[in-house]
Amino acid sequence: MTRPLREPLGLKIYRTVSRAGAPVASFALKQRLKAGKEDATRIGERRGEAGRPRPEGPLVWIHGASVGESLSVIPLVQRLKADRPDYNFLVTTGTVTSAALMKERLPDGAFHQFIPLDHPDYVETFLDHWRPDAALFVESEFWPNLILAARRRAKFMGLVNGRVSPRSFEDWKRQPNAIKFILSSFDLIIAQDPQNADRLSALSGRSIETYGNLKYAAPALPGDAAALEILTDQIGERRRWLAASTHPGEEEPVLKAAKLLKADFPDLLTIVTPRHPGRGAEIAALCATHGLTCARRSAEEPITPDTDVYIADTLGELGLFYRLCDVSFVGGSLVDKGGHNPLEPARLGAAILHGPYVFNFVETYREMRRTGGAALTRNEREIASAVTRLFADAKTRAAMTEAAREAAEAGAERILSEVCGKIEPVLPAETTH
What we know:
This protein has 433 residues and is an alpha/beta fold. The protein contains 18 helices and 14 strands. Helix 15 (362-371) links the parallel strand 13 (351-354) and strand 14.
């Protein structure tokens, strides 16, 4: 592969501006800290300051920005660690939620740090300490300072499960030289589906391979057995359904659907798990405007016979509520967020509903709809109609659930084996550290 000889002027300007923007970066961190979006005890990591010593021996750095990407990282780390036990694995993410997930689920020999902001000094501090032998970026946002500095340090760089949203694709097309130079930093690029392969190929000028979405290989979300038993006792025999990972603009149609459903199912319980738990009070206020009584999990309010809506505004418990409900609407799809991962409910026995905005998982949803494992709903009436049908017909619900489960399991081992089969032969065989 031939790398461009000259770094585009736009990237040089970006580096200069970002270096001068240290006060802005510092202010942004303080604001995020106030908003609960940063861990106060680990804020130094966001400035590139290490939270622990570098382990001896070879080190592979794997970056997955947020919750979705970090879930893709877990099976990748597990397989690579099993095949390369002499390697250590540094996993970086950028959100508090993903950090909590990594603490729970990374295998021995792998550990988590927060990714530094894309300031040249922060990035250099990070790389000076960790000195990665190889760097793998999962999905990813393309932060120029981070990627270009890593290229100068690591023997091997890969973009795995690569994704470029349609919006980002249009933005990068207006900076073709910059994105081509950035993507030339990667020795290997593997896309998560054909659509993203086409976009990455257009931006990089390279042929891009795809073997499927690594999220197929992610383990089922955990769920606390004791908490499940308590909630099951509180709900009893009531009909219930879940609106999972919802965003602003989605709770309104969900609650309207709940009111429509209560006409036929008076004992109905609607469970809402907002994507961002801090929105619990906002959703509770919305319930009040619709005349629906609610209980909030973060306030330890129990589900009573009078509770219409249970707001699960806590962190890391989505697996619990997917286990609790066999009908789930997956959010981020009624608004232009691209949809969230349908494989999570599929593995835990849920019939899946979703909205029209699923560009993050186009192939996954298409395959699930093709096999009958998921259904498209565009508004509150379609949601209510689909939930009614699934409540009324246990056979249809069971068939839909099984189709979703089979779709989730079918490609998992194949995809992981093929992706790791491309990565492992090109990882550095030894380290100079």
